[in-house]
Backbone:
């Protein structure tokens, strides 16, 4: 029973980490886009 709980907690942690990674990636892309449009163009 404890193993199942640990495995479930690990899956929840991975899901949360993935959401945070996606959020940070989108935010950093937006920052780069806002500050780098003039430089790239």
Residues:
């Amino acid at each position: 029973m404890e193993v199942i709980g640990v495995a479930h907690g690990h899956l929840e942690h991975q899901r949360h980490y993935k959401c945070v990674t996606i959020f940070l990636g989108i935010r950093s892309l937006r920052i780069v886009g806002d500050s780098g449009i003039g430089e790239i163009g």
Summary: The helical segments are 2-40. Residues 10 and 16 are 10 Å apart (CA to CA). The first helix runs from residue 2 to 40. The chain is about 95% helix and 0% strand.
